[in-house]
Each structure stands twice: as C-alpha cells, then as structure tokens.
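Bug report

Summary: structure tokens for DUF5050 domain-containing protein differ between web form and batch submission.
Environment: batch mode, default settings.
Steps: 1) Submit the sequence below via batch. 2) Compare with the web form result.

Sequence submitted:
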Amino acid sequence: MKKNFTKVIAMFIMFSLLSGCSGKQTQKVDEKALHYEADYATLKNSMASSSFMADIKGGALLFPVYENSEGTHKYTVFYDGKNTNIMDSNPESGCDFDNVDSCSSISDEMRSNYTVYGDKLYYVVEAFNKKDQLTETIIRSNFDGTEEEQLLSVTKSDDGEDVSFAFTIHKNILYYADSNKVHAYDLSDNEDEICFELEPDTNIVNMFFEDDSVYITTEIYKDKQEVIKNAILKGSLTDYSMKLWQKEKNVYYANSQFLIEVGNGEKEGVFYYDVASNKKKKLLDTYSFSAFVNDDYIVLCDIDMKNLYLFNRKGELLDKTALEHMEGLPQGIVHHSFYFANGNKFYRYPIKEDKFQKYVQIELT
C-alpha cells in the first residue's frame, strides 16, 4: 500500500521564511505556538536531539534504519499514534515501505541528533576529510528531505579533541558546544556568535534550557580561584552573563527547581535534589539511561533494561512496570507515551492516568 505523505506540512505550525543575503534560508518560529515542545533540552540523551525520533505536533517523526547494496541509510516516517506514513515529495515516485529507495527522505549518509523546529528538520551528518579528521555538520531540510542546507560545521582537532556536535534549538536560537565555547546561531538571520566561553580545559557535558536561562553542566570547571569537579553553571540568555550555581553535582537533568543527580561510590543510584530546600532523596538504587523529563513527568529506565519508572516532578513514584519488549534504547516522552527504538523497530508505553499501559509495537507498513 502506497504511503506518501505530501500534505503533512499543513498540520504543522506556520512560520516565516525569509531569504538571507548569502542565499541561505532563514527561519523564525512563534514559540508560543510550540506547545508540543518541552521548555527544556539537553545536548545529550534528550528528545531535543535524538538519533531515532523527534517530537512534532500531532505525533512523532521516526527515523528507521534501512540497508541496501550501497550501505546503511535512514528515512523519515510520520507516526500519528496509529498509522505510519513515509515522508516523500513526489506522489508519483512509488515510495512505500516495500520501495524505500524511491522515497525522497532516504539519506545518502548516516544522520543523527534529529531535531524538529517549526516545520523544519535539523540533524547532524558526520564525514572524514582528506586528513582523516572527523567533521560534523548540522543540516536543515524539509521533512521530506528536500531543500537541504548546510548550516554549521565543526572539525575534530589534530590533538584528539572530542567534538560533540549535539545541539538544542531554543527561542529561535540554535545552541551548540564546540570545545569550551557555547555558540548561539540565530535562525532568523544566520548569524553565529559565541555566547559563553569557559576556561580552555573545561569539559562541557550537558546544557539545559529553561525560559531565559541555561544550566551548563561540566566535568571539570576552572575559575580564577579553584578547580571544581561536576560544577553546574547558570547562564543568562539575555545578556550572556554566567555564574557558578552548583558544586559537585553530577546530574542527568537540571532546572531551577530540581536536579536528577547521579550517585557514585558508596552513594550509587539516582537521586532527586530539591533546589529550594537542599534536600535529596533516592529514586533508584541503580543507574538509569539518563532522565527523561517533560512538563508532567520524570521517567527513568534502569541500566539493565528491566524496569521503567514514572515519577511526578516532585520526585514521587507514580508507577513502575517491567519492560516486556526488551529491544532498543530509551528515546523519551512524546505525547503521553515513552518510546524505545532499535534500528527499524519502535515501541511505546502509553501513559494514562499516571500509569504505564501495555507496550505497543509500531508497525512500519
């Protein structure tokens, strides 16, 4: 059965698309309309930047893995909670799940860190140059794979510097970390500037955005007086000022109200730290695949993939369920379901009345 989805754009939020002087398109989105997009994000392990799916209004975009004689690829599928449809630009192409090679959204390279913003798709493509250096490039395109644009690139340095080019889009600004610097790339005019610059040996781990603030977690942070392990910095997105906010806090997640903290040594486990009271309580006795947070819930998945835990934002346990599907890695909370992905297989655990429901395998047909 043919599964074209050429009219899906009408379902998404209207945006203003302007032409820049260099010929590169610009984008400006009314964030007040982005009710489906949580007001937080991280550089790693976040639904804001995922390898297998992205949150959009009315459903989710899935990015299954597809292999042919030329190698491994990904393509784009819209899932509305019941049906799946391949994104394709040509109704006459013959694109369907039995003929993926004909679809315009199939990639010629491996892509990762997918993010949807308005009605544009952003992702990272990796390639090695002639000097065998890894270059990571952020690409913007339509959902059906047309109108691809290269926005930004970072090349791994000769001294073996670890480049992580995961990114977050927040209030029309694309934020990314390059070594010890945080950049702000304005989607409305394609201007790139450094908004925060830390000491050269500082290792940025994650960034969490909340309204006009960003919480930057570090492995080692150096200021003028001391070297601090697992420091959290609080930065202003209005004037780009920054201050030391928390010390010795190794976290999965951070905002102004609470932290999801990772224990170590004798204090192994996952903890909920209330910022106002400075009180901490244990959520898990083991480690988790990150912490997945939205406006209503915190979801943890224990590291051995046996159980899924549902908490409210006060850190109170609401439900626990044994994982039955046992395939794939956690992806995050999208529209009242928690998702897992494994290549071309996708699963979700619906959340209803603060309880996990029986898992659903998403059929790509």
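Above is the batch result. After comparison, the two runs are identical; trailing whitespace caused the diff. The chain has no helices and 35 strands. Residues 13 and 118 are 6 Å apart (CA to CA).
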